[in-house]
Design goal:
The protein is α/β, with parallel strands linked by helices. The chain is built from 12 helices and 10 strands. Strands 2-1-3-10-4 form a 5-stranded mixed sheet. Strands 7-6-8-5-9 form a 5-stranded mixed sheet. Helix 2 packs across helix 9.
Length: 310
């Protein structure tokens, strides 16, 4: 009788805990991939549940939508890019950065021409790009750092076909390829690229992937709980990279490829150890970079679009 009663009480306790779990909706920047490893691992190890959260993870139908869903109050959090955040602030959208997923740029300039030893050697070459404005400003800054004038090369819009444009010889180099994805993809095809990281050539360092919340709800306790769980997820990921990859590959069989396996490993040092930490100086410097390149109309104070939830 006692055992039955204990069992009933435990069942009731778990049921109460489950019903008390607070719902939180996170919209990803793109389909699930190794860039999201700490989130996936936090889910794997039950870190969200331990914080009393029921987290719904949604890949977007359109990568432009996630921040706008948060701005409209239709999601609690979205993953986006720090450069985009500055544009949202300039447009007056009610979004604030509340956490960081990847705290280093992923963007690079890549070429298959092994004779190119620095961006200065791109003089007179054809460069493929995908995103107008920001990639042109980034490339121009890198070239000026190496005393080359931007007009001394030809820019070609390759419409996100970066690796295929390089492999086909359509362009001599590309900007926009990620050091943890496209660089590995080319290497796996037997074409190891020469890679120049944007922050090594005069471009201010920035956080590649960040979390944004609506300004009205950014201080809700469930947001802080999410980042406490995410921190645990990343700690477990760093300690158990192979085990967590195997669990991820089993849960997402369609993503169990050699490229994703290598990207999972290559991304480990890129994740923010403390997702809630904010480097205000870094945000100010990137805001100034965008303003100097006439990509935003005004300088917005960092506190208007980024907060630290500690």
């Amino acid at each position: 009788m006692k055992k039955t009663l204990c069992g009933l009480l435990l069942t009731a306790a778990f049921a109460a805990q489950a019903s008390a779990a607070e719902k939180l909706t996170l919209v990803l920047d793109w389909y699930i991939n190794p860039d999201h490893a700490p989130i996936m691992v936090a889910e794997q190890i039950g870190a969200f549940k331990a914080e009393g959260l029921d987290v719904k993870i949604i890949p977007p139908s359109d990568p432009a939508l996630p921040p706008r869903l948060v701005a409209a109050g239709q999601a609690d959090l979205a993953i986006t890019y720090q450069p985009q955040l500055h544009f949202f602030a300039d447009q007056g959208l009610p979004l604030v950065r509340v956490g960081t997923l990847i705290n280093t740029p992923l963007n690079t300039v890549m070429t298959l021409d092994q004779t190119i030893k620095s961006p200065a050697d791109l003089k007179g070459k054809k460069i493929g790009y995908s995103v107008s404005g920001i990639e042109q400003a980034t490339l121009a800054t890198m070239l000026e750092h190496e005393h080359v004038k931007p007009e001394e090369m030809k820019l070609i819009n390759v419409n996100f076909q970066l690796t295929s444009a390089l492999l086909a010889g359509q362009v001599d180099a590309v900007i926009g390829g990620y050091r943890n994805i496209e660089a590995l993809e080319l290497k796996l095809q037997g074409k190891p690229p020469v890679v120049f990281n944007v922050e090594d050539y005069g471009v201010p360092a920035y956080d590649e992937l960040i979390f944004v919340a609506n300004r009205k709800t950014a201080n809700e306790p469930k947001i802080k709980k999410f980042f406490a769980a995410l921190k645990k997820g990343n700690e477990y990921l760093q300690a158990h990279p192979l085990e967590t990859w195997q669990a991820f590959a089993k849960a997402h069989a369609e993503l169990n490829t050699e490229l994703n396996k290598q990207a999972w490993q290559a991304s480990l040092p890129l994740f923010a150890a403390d997702p809630a930490k904010l480097d205000r100086t870094r945000y100010q410097a990137y805001e100034q970079f965008l303003f100097d390149n006439k990509l935003i109309k005004k300088i917005t104070p960092v506190d208007d679009y980024a907060v630290a939830l500690h």
